[in-house]
Amino acid sequence: MNLNHLIIPITIAVILILILVLIVCGYVKAPPDQAYIISGLKHDAKILIGRSGIRIPFFERMDRLYLGQMTVDIKTEQSVPTNDFINVNVDAVAKVRITPSQEGIRLAAKNFLNKKPEDITMDLQDSLQGNMREIIGTLSLKEINTDRDSFSDQVMLKASKDMDKLGIEILSCNIQNVTDDNGLIRDLGADNTSKIKKDAAIAKAQADRDIAIAQAEANKSANDARVLAETEIAEKNNELEIRKSELQKHSDTKKAEADAAYEIQKQEQEKTIQTATVNAQIAKAEREAELRKQEVAVQQQQLDAEVNKKADAERYKVEQEAAAMLAKRQREAEARKYELEKEAEAMRTKADAARYQAEQEAAGIRARGEAEAAAIQAKAVAEAEGMEKKAEAYAKYNNAAIVEMLVGIMPQMAAEIAKPLSSIDKVNIYGTSGANGTNGSGVSEISGNTAAVMQQVFDTMSEATGVDFRDILKAQTYDAKVNRNINVSGLTIPAVHHEQTAAPADAEPEPGTSDLSSGTGDPAIPSTPDAETVPENHTL
What is the mean pLDDT of residues 389-406? Predict the structure, then answer.
């Protein structure tokens, strides 16, 4: 029984705790710049702005919608033609927000729920740009620049229709900048500046003209009053004179006088008017001349400014180019100096190497020269010793050595003398007579020239040296050794038998004769004890 009584209170407590937990978990409080939209159980969503509410967990959801002010940059990314077909670029800024009404929040919730302000502005940018492009196409360039308030109002009015459908309210739209690709806006400003200057000059000229006219009119009025006063005085004087003359003049004379006075007065008035007119024209011409002079001065100043600006630009360009050339030449000079220093250092190193090489070569040459000198000295010593031995041999063998040398070189002499004959390609023989009137062929004469030339060579050598080589050679022949018939001083001495001409060993030969006996005379001639008498004489 006691447990049954406790179940009901426990159940109620649990239910209350659950309700309290659900209330705590579902309690929400919206800030002033956001709208909390609770939907789920009811057909119409509950909107909380700057107040609190309860969201039932698992049965209702809560979404947020930003209600603060947002800035949208409206720029024409491409040039847009105006009503007068001039391409312009327009930069504008629009301030927007969610419409602060139940209908506006519901419309905005369908499009921008749970989105950040940046995302909302990006979604609105395309629509606002399109509306601004449409308005630009309906206005001229001058209207866009001169009446920007009207331009921004038209953009707001045009865009409001589209923004209302999205639940967006446009707070303001400001035109930041208007530009064109061809610089027409700048040219319009220059044109307006010229017009303003022109209007000011015209107004000044008109004021000067009005002053001149007023001055002329004042002068004219003063002159008229003076003339009128003088005329009245004259009239009074005339009347006085007329009265003094006791009315002697008739009425027609008086009338004539009056007419004359009238003509005089008329002429004076015309003269005054002409003078005033001329003065006014002169003043006007002076003003116009002054105005033209000022215009010329303004144009001269503009021209001077343009020329000075161009001259400054040219001077700056020339200075910059000169500075660049100077810097370039300095760099080139430094580079050239560095190269010259490197080249000088390389040449100095090369010169040191060349000097070392030259010293080594000089040492080698000196050593080689010393070796060659030693070799030459040794060779000279050897040659001197050889020559000395040859001289001893020649002295020992006397004419036999000379004969041996002559016999040794005769084949070589014959070969050198006959050498030109080897270059003969063709021989034409026109006669059959031999040399010295003898019978013989031309070929034999050519071959006989070799012996004749050799004989001439020996004769030349004999004349040059004083040695009769022919006698030396014949002295070694068999005939000379057997018959011993020698021609001495042009005399022919017959050879005698050895036994008949043998003289005592101690006998001296007679002057002018040669000792041809065996064992005397030339030691190279052997004795021939068994020789027989030769029947003919042998002449050397």
Answer: 66
